[in-house]
Amino acid sequence: MTGGTLIVGASQAGLQLAASLRKFGDTEPITLVGEESHPPYQRPPLSKEYLTGEADLESLALRAPSYYADAGIDLVRGERVTEVSLSASGRPGSGLAGTASGRSFAFDRLALTVGAAPRRLDVPGARLDGICCLRDRDDAVRVRACLASSAHVVVVGGGFIGLEAAAVARGLGKAVTVVEAADRLISRAVAPLVSEFYRQAHLRRGTRVLLSASVVGFDGAAGRVTAVRLADGTVLPADLVLVGVGVLPRTELAEQLGLACDRGIVVDSQARTSDPHVHAAGDCTVQPHPLTGAGTVRLESVQNAVAQATAAAASMLGRSVETRSVPWFWSSQGDLKLQIAGLSTGYDEVVVRGEPDSERFSVLYYRQGELLAIDAVNSPADYMAVRKALTQGRTVPAGAAADAGTPLKALLTARPGVAAASS
């Protein structure tokens, strides 16, 4: 090989892919190209510990500065790859990539770990200073600086990132309003009763929550935002606006290569794209259900980025790894810690353990009696029990799960017709 492996996107998935190649014994050159000026870092703390001041930027680094040279990984920062092409002849999967600044990188193997970009609001005033997203490290630095001097904070979007930031702002004594276009919070991820719990919990802590509310524009003075205008005529004063209305997978390079894209770059369980010589991993991808293999899902989590990137590295080297895994995710909103294991899509029954008003409870999701997932609020033992059940192919009978006096781990049983795996 001459060009080695080119990984486009110095994300969690990108770094994991490079590290996994080395762990699996790959000795060929590895180039990891990222458009940010920073080495790969953790993103989850940006909306939590970093905004509160509990974490500094240095603590977010995924590896020590010396790691890259020691591992023989050429980390290229501050370069945005804008063009990529595969060779018409020669080694399958080889080609050339070019950056916005004019640099070029030859490669013999290619992986796309380009992540996703935040959705923007296309309304009057959307470019005023003080209107921020919270996707990367530079965003977080801006938001933290603005928080220090802001009295009124409006969060547009009642998803996880928005609610986490709202909890931080409220904890800092700011007047906070959450504006959500849907009729409930985090509606794509949790059942209605969990949505209502979070609405009530944020209200109890002094945050205003507006549902079924659409932003139609922003007012400003001297180039800086002063208010948010809603479709019903409401005007909300704002010194800082945080927009968290979802992300768009970055598929531009995949489309240049003619790869299949559908809500993301389509990959198989081994992170191979529609061209099996090109791999992709992380938030930019759509993949088979990680437990059943049926249908396709798009997962935005550290766990998925790590698992998928590991599979991509193995596949690049002609190996395979076990890809059946239980998706898991967490969200810390002040003193409320939500832990999710599994995917609840398609559920037809929910079982509640505990009392939501106590702020310590769990919701188990079932489809035709089969355990799918859990949402556990300040209930780590329930979360771990269901994660273990899903990992081992076991279940918790729905009829027994509601008894909060019985630990879930004592209720684990084999699924009908399925032999439980060893732990």
Defining traits:
alpha/beta, 10 helices, 29% strand, disordered C terminus
Give your account of this protein's structure.
The protein is α/β, with parallel strands linked by helices and 423 residues long. It has helices at 12-23, 49-52, 67-71, 137-148, 160-171, 192-204, 252-256, 302-316, 380-392, 398-401; strands at 5-8, 30-33, 73-76, 81-86, 95-99, 104-107, 109-112, 116-118, 131-132, 152-156, 175-179, 208-210, 215-221, 224-230, 235-237, 240-243, 247-249, 265-266, 278-280, 285-288, 296-297, 328-333, 336-342, 349-355, 360-367, 370-377, 394-395, 413-414. It has a five-stranded parallel β-sheet. A five-stranded parallel β-sheet has the order 9-16-10-11-12. A hairpin with a 2-residue loop joins strand 22 and strand 23. Helix 1 (12-23) crosses helix 8. The radius of gyration is 23 Å and the shape is globular. Residues 419-423 have low confidence and may be disordered.
Short description:
The chain is α/β, with parallel strands linked by helices. The protein is built from ten helices and 28 strands.
Proportion of helical residues:
10-25%
What share of the residues does DSSP label as strand, in percent? 25-35%
Poorly predicted parts: 419-423
What is the typical, i.e. mean, pLDDT? 94
* Radius of gyration, whole Å: 23 Å
Strand order in the largest sheet: 3-2-1-7-19
In whole angstroms, the N-to-C terminal distance is: 41 Å
Shape: globular
Query: How many strands, what sense, and barrel or not for the largest sheet?
Result: 5 strands, parallel
DSSP helical segment count? 10
How does the helix and strand content classify structurally?
Answer: alpha/beta
Per DSSP E runs of 2 or more residues, the count of β-strands stands at 28
